[in-house]
Design a protein that fits this description.
Layout lengths: L5 E7 L5 H9 L17 E7 L3 E7 L10 H10 L6 E7 L5 H12 L4 E6 L8 H10 L4 E3 L8 H11 L20 E5 L13 H12 L3 E5 L4 H7 L4 E4 L4 H5 L8 E3 H9 L2 H7 L11 E6 L10 H14 L4 E6 L10 E6 L7 H13 L4 E3 H8 L3 H5 L5
Parallel strand pairs: 1-3, 1-4, 4-5, 5-6, 7-8, 7-9, 9-10, 11-12, 11-13, 13-14
Antiparallel strand pairs: 2-3
Helix pairs in contact: 11-13
């Protein structure tokens, strides 16, 4: 099953044809093209499908060597894109592989981002064999010569990207692969409240249904009001609920039936699971005046039922009895200075890729801030943390 769209960033110095390359790859005038140096200022994004990968977001960036009046800000934004991308195209031309290109390649290697070397404008000046040989010797990355203006080398470049990007970048780890067997019944408790999109299911619910089906198990979906009646008619092998109704659901599900939530299982698939298991008990250490960082991996219009901005802050204040302060970061917006936080609480991250959430949480862990997860946090303050994580504890 596909994850959220793979992000592919295009990097290089000014006027190497990065924007032209994106336009050639997408077949559209996605990015503004001009001979004027520094035309691209802020990162520009374009979504499309790439055969062999699936949904892709192209990210055009400002020149790495931009020394204009606002160049420093532009380069900082360009470097920030490194935390978003799953694959990079490092574009150069005129056989110029110099300090700037080596610096970009070094940043990509340091962050373990796979990349493809792209010699653009090869119709004007072909890639010299001695330059190609040196690059192949130095970097374990494909090298493609192309002309964005003429559309030459496009298919070769796409093949190189498909072969270079790791499958983990675009495939979701099956959230229930080790929890259910073919034929098992998985009961999904899915409240459709004011936060649910009109006429649709939220993404974690859709993903879970697909994952259960992929295991050849049987998903059965109910709203909380129908749970008791359903439990009287069948005995599920696993119950997965929206974390917001944990208290109501756990009171009805017999203790011998495994119980978890969508956000907890998403945490397993996204790779921040162990940090959340270890960090959640730090809730008991919160003190008056402590700051809590709430991490939402999407942008949405909030309401009085918002789980991250209303319900969890209220639950934490009630449970701890402390005067806590909450700050919020949406989507992939920059993190604040982390030294002042006593806890960070991450949503299920259904809207971002595994690499994006891993990069974000690593910064938080490196700053020494304990990490929790929406589902684990709610389970902890409602007294059922041990039950809903028992099947995962080592």
């Amino acid at each position: 099953m596909k994850d959220r769209a793979v992000h592919i960033g295009v990097f290089g110095r000014i006027n190497q044809g990065k924007s032209s390359l994106i336009n050639a790859l997408t077949g559209q005038d996605t990015a503004i093209v001009s001979d004027v140096p520094g035309t691209t200022t802020d990162p520009v994004k374009k979504s499309m499908e790439v055969f062999g990968i699936g949904p892709v977001v192209w990210v055009d960036t400002a020149g790495w060597d931009d020394d204009s009046a606002l160049g420093g800000q532009r380069v900082r934004k360009t470097k920030a894109v490194l935390d978003e991308v799953d694959l990079a195209l490092l574009v150069f031309s005129g056989n110029r592989w110099e300090e700037c290109e080596r610096r970009i390649a070094g940043e990509l290697q340091a962050k373990d981002i796979p990349f493809v070397l792209v010699h653009n404008k090869s119709d004007v000046e072909p890639l010299r064999e001695e330059v190609a040989a040196s690059l192949r010797k130095t970097y374990a990355a494909p090298l493609c010569a192309c002309s964005a203006l003429r559309g030459e080398g496009r298919e070769e470049l796409i093949r190189a990207m498909v072969e270079t990007i790791p499958p983990s970048a675009y495939r979701v780890t099956n959230m229930v692969a080790d929890l259910v067997r073919p034929g098992d019944v998985v009961l999904l408790v899915m409240p459709q409240d004011g936060e649910a999109p009109e006429g649709r299911l939220i993404l974690p619910q859709v993903q879970m249904i697909r994952h259960v089906l992929d295991m050849h198990a049987v998903p059965v979906a109910v709203q909380p009001e129908e749970l008791a009646g359903m439990l009287s008619r069948l005995r599920p092998n696993l119950v997965i609920t929206d974390s917001q109704v944990f208290a109501q659901v756990q009171a009805q599900v017999p203790p011998e039936i495994p119980l978890s939530s969508f956000s907890i299982l998403l945490s397993r698939a996204k790779g921040n699971f162990e940090e959340s298991l270890a960090g959640t008990p730090h809730i008991d250490r919160l003190r008056d005046g402590d700051r809590v960082l709430m991490l939402e991996s999407c942008t949405h219009i909030t309401s009085c039922e918002d789980i991250g901005r209303v319900k969890i802050p209220r639950l934490l204040r009630q449970y701890t009895g402390k005067q806590l302060h909450f700050d919020y970061v949406s989507s992939l917006d920059p993190l604040p200075t982390l030294s002042g936080y006593a806890l960070a609480v991450q949503c299920g991250a259904c809207m971002v890729t595994r690499r994006q959430i891993a990069n974000r949480l690593k910064k938080i862990a490196d700053a020494g801030v304990p990490i929790s997860n929406y589902g684990m946090c709610i389970a902890y303050v409602t007294g059922i943390f041990r039950r809903v994580t028992a099947m995962f504890q080592k």
